[in-house]
Amino acid sequence: MTSPSTILVAGAGIGGLAAALALARAGFRVVVFEAAPALSEAGAGIQLSPNATRVLSALGVVEALRACAVAPAAIRVLNARSGREIVRIPLGRAVEARYGAPYWVVHRADLQRALLEAAAARPEIVLRLGFTIVDHAVGEHGVTVVGKTQSGVLVEEQGHALVGADGLWSTVRARLGRDSAPRFRGRAAWRALIPAGDADPAWRRPLTQLWLGPDAHLVHYPVRAGDAVNIVAIVKDDRAARGWAAPGDRDALLARFRRWSAKARAILEAPARWQIWSLHDLPPRPRPGRGPVTLLGDAAHAMLPFLAQGGAMAIEDAAVLADCAAHRPDDLAAAFRTYEQLRQVRTMRAAQESARMGAIYHLGGALAAARDFVMRRAGGERLAARQDWLYRWPG
Ligand SMILES: Cc1cc2nc3c(=O)[nH]c(=O)nc-3n(C[C@H](O)[C@H](O)[C@H](O)COP(=O)(O)OP(=O)(O)OC[C@H]3O[C@@H](n4cnc5c(N)ncnc54)[C@H](O)[C@@H]3O)c2cc1C
């Protein structure tokens, strides 16, 4: 019997860990390299749509998440200026019945812990923390990665193939020589998490609440089984910061929302601390990888967050990648080209749709009134059905 091929994965984010699990289940040995010395996800929430929870279920992660996930009954869309509800888009049981998988909101740390525990339970997966990949080279027998350890020592590791799941600022992508610098999109996400005890009962309800205003919107939902409320405000911005954790000036944020309704402003006044994440995406590229090297998740197709699909696409990527690799274990380069081809149209559509939603969310004046009218007239059921292409995946 030949020993299984070793696939190297750069990055232990949502995409890298999901890929490691899917590849291990497909019979590969996997080594995951993560630059951070310890895995501690940003204190923020993430929405997991049915296309993502379906894959997480197949990866054996859903049960560990269930206890801390919240299943919102609906997305409640409100006009931020008037404070009036525009429409409710049903989620909860309606989603489970329609798509056979739940729509959950979770804390990122809970998702990461569930993925990590599942990975730790598989002997085929090795996790190397504090190992920053700085370069890679493709040779006759596979791929060599060069990484820097915490103490600054350069180390080489070998495998049969490499998956760059190292996020927006991917080193693997840069080393592939692709013309692919992230584009700053002139907006910033302000993020905060407050304990349920500090939150108005209306914010603790199992709902995703989405307030739409000119050039800005606000989303909040409970996480950690209702013990905390996640708040994200997206506003225009002309400065690009790197990373998740740049501190935000609360007063500056509140000043931008002066003309919002008192109910919406009360939510923004609740957190004492905010963190800012500048929004970038990647220009679409037809062939992200080369030879036995490919990209996955944000490294391949970082997108704007208005459709809440960046993480879901990374999780889908992981499932498709492992499927392709399982079909061509003897030719991983060919398997990776098939994977890239299979993912291209869908991830491009998600990115385009996300940008389009952002433009609609941030309309002002007469156009905002027209948007609210169209949404109200369409009604929640019809608006929900518009996500069939996204949530029914793989069909
Ligand atoms: C405001 C906001 C809200 C969002 N909301 C949602 C949502 O509700 N639902 C959803 O599905 N998506 C959402 N997203 C998108 C989602 O967060 C990302 O798409 C997802 O986190 C990408 O995962 P990833 O594993 O590809 O990359 P990352 O999470 O960036 O992980 C990359 C990992 O690689 C490591 N790394 C980087 N460089 C190296 C290196 N050289 N060597 C080794 N390791 C390295 C990093 O430390 C990191 O751990 C949102 C994004 C934003 C900005």
Q: Note the gap between the termini.
A: 36 Å
Would you report the number of β strands?
18
What's the number of structural domains?
2
Q: Can you say what the CATH homologous superfamily of the largest domain is?
A: FAD/NAD(P)-binding domain
The largest sheet is: 8 strands, mixed
CATH architecture of the largest domain: 3-Layer(bba) Sandwich
Low-confidence stretches: none
What is the subunit arrangement here? single chain
Q: Order of strands across the widest beta sheet?
A: 5-4-13-14-15-12-17-16
CA-based gyration radius: 21 Å
Which outline best applies? globular
**Average predicted local confidence, pLDDT:** 95
Q: What name does CATH use for the topology of the largest domain?
A: FAD/NAD(P)-binding domain
Class based on secondary structure composition and strand pairing: alpha/beta
Distinct helical segment count: 14
> Which CATH C-level class of the largest domain is it?
Alpha Beta
Indicate the percent of residues in helices: 25-40%
Identify every distinct bound molecule in the structure, by name, code or SMILES. flavin-adenine dinucleotide
Tell me the fraction of residues in β-strands, as a range.
25-35%
